[in-house]
From TrEMBL:
Annotated HDOD domain residues: 190-390
InterPro entries registered for this protein in UniProt: HDOD, RNase_Y/CdgJ, UCP036888_HDGYP-like, YbaK/aa-tRNA-synt-asso_dom_sf, YbaK/aa-tRNA-synth-assoc-dom
Protein name: HDOD domain-containing protein
PROSITE patterns: HDOD
Residues making up the signal peptide according to the UniProt record: none
GO molecular function, one term: aminoacyl-tRNA deacylase activity
């Protein structure tokens, strides 16, 4: 949707000089300012209200919100937010929540807080969720010549800080992070936790669960059943004779714990559809997930018994620790495409910092928010959130350190640098591993590279 027709006609008829700026999708004026990287006090929006005489519009910057009681007292009559049905009929050329603050163009009375200083450059919402209009202060004030001036009815939004007479400043990272988290946890576009994953999770918590229970559950999803059987027949497991049923795949090849976590990982990721190409695409996601899961499971066997974590949980964390990229691609496609392109150009070495700079949040945080909202195990949530944090020392540190080591080893291998003196010794010490053990495991892993790649193609299909 382009700039609202009513606004375009009004601006052009008054010979207002302006420019239209396209930005990534936003849901609120404050989010628009954050995305466009402009001071919130420079972006104006309206709050449409109703009083005894009909509709009216209060115009305030994105850094502020309306104090309805204070404004009612100033006007000597009660004002309250307009009904949505009233808005949709008057602002038919605007998307809901994206109304330009030009009341006169729509025949509405307008009130402005005279206590606020208008900046030299002003931005306003253009009528949809991806465009802003930029103009000078002079031109903006020309649009408000008939407005009523009142004082001190606008309140500073929490999290926005004023600095003397300068435009309000915002901590971009913390505010955008809060808004992204809210969208992740509340968005209707995201699927609920898949039923299969929910039931596997319940079975996982049952100390009396048996192979027959897991077989009965997985058989209800034919595609998942086929994946488990094909997985068990992979040369990677070197099982002679092959298997043709779930019970044998679990009892003779894969094991109860591994299949349960494999099923949960596949079920959780299945609903998320993202583009295939690029360093964040689906093909690379599953390649990294399969290699990470296999490597974490193999490393698990080398860790001293007194420290050794559960192999199945390690495998699940390997599959899902980059889950945030699925969330990003599913819910924030424009941001995903931009970050995908950026990482393709700059490489993955400093991805965490690039993500913070570009999004204000890392993929680990994005993924952990949804996993936490789904009430999944703490070790999975923590490992997803912290696997790039070298200072983490919480309850799930064994899993976090394994995920960190796995990421570093795979990155080193891709650049041909898996050498004894290049290994992260501090991580090895934390896990109780020797460098020669790790090099042996890496050699074994990539001896099965062809088989692992077959599994990648199977999962990414």
């Amino acid at each position: 949707m382009a700039i609202a027709k009513t606004i375009k006609q009004y601006l052009d008829s008054r010979h207002i000089v302006y420019s239209v700026i396209e930005v990534s999708r936003f849901e609120s004026p404050l989010e628009a300012a954050i995305i466009a990287k402009i001071p919130p006090r420079s972006l104006y929006y309206p709050v449409v209200m109703r009083d005894a005489f009909g509709l009216m519009m209060a115009v305030v910057p994105a850094s502020h919100k309306i104090d309805f009681d204070g404004l009612s007292e100033l006007l000597h009559r009660k004002v309250s937010p307009a009904y949505q049905t009233q808005l949709s009929s008057v602002f038919a050329d605007c998307q809901p929540g994206h109304i330009p603050p030009v009341g006169i163009a729509y025949g509405l009375r307008t009130v402005i807080d005279a206590a606020l200083t208008t900046p030299d450059e002003v931005y306003i919402v253009a009528g949809d969720h991806s465009r802003l209009i930029k103009m000078s202060r002079k031109n903006f004030m020309m649009l408000q010549t008939n407005a009523l001036l009142a004082s001190d009815f606008a309140q500073l939004v929490d999290g926005v800080k004023e600095a003397g007479d300068e435009s309000a400043n915002l901590s971009w990272d913390s505010d955008l992070k809060a808004k992204l988290r809210q969208r992740v946890e509340q968005a209707t576009e995201l699927p609920p936790m898949p039923e299969m994953a929910t039931r596997v999770f319940q079975l996982r918590a049952d100390p009396h669960a048996e192979i027959a229970d897991l077989v009965s559950l997985i058989e209800q999803d034919p595609s998942l059943s086929a994946q488990v059987i094909r997985y068990a027949n992979s040369p990677y497991f070197n099982f002679r004779g092959g298997v043709d049923n779930l019970h044998d795949a679990i009892s003779r090849v894969l094991g109860f714990d591994m299949v349960m976590n494999l099923a949960m990982g596949l079920a959780l990721a299945k609903p998320f559809k993202i583009p295939r190409p690029g360093p964040l695409g689906l093909d690379h996601y599953w390649q990294h997930a399969v290699y990470s899961a296999s490597l974490m499971q193999m490393l698990c066997k080398e860790i001293p018994q007194e420290k050794r974590p559960r192999a199945g949980t390690s495998y699940l964390i390997g599959l899902l620790h980059d889950f945030g990229y699925l969330v990003l691609g599913h819910l924030f496609r424009e941001e995903f495409d931009g970050l995908n392109k950026l990482l393709a150009e700059q490489g993955l070495e400093n991805r965490a910092q690039i993500e913070k700079d570009y999004l204000g949040v890392t993929h680990g945080e994005l993924g952990s928010w949804l996993l936490e909202a789904w009430n999944l195990p703490d070790e999975l949530v923590e490992s997803t959130r912290e696997h790039h944090n070298q200072n983490y020392s919480g309850a799930s540190s064994i899993y976090v350190n394994m995920a960190r080591l796995t990421d570093q080893l795979l990155e080193m291998y891709e650049t041909g640098e898996v050498l004894d003196d290049e290994l992260p010794q501090a991580l090895l010490d934390e896990l109780g591993l020797e460098s020669q053990q790790v090099i042996k495991v890496m050699t074994q892993l990539f001896e099965h590279g062809t088989n692992l790649n077959d599994m990648v193609r199977l999962l990414a299909a």
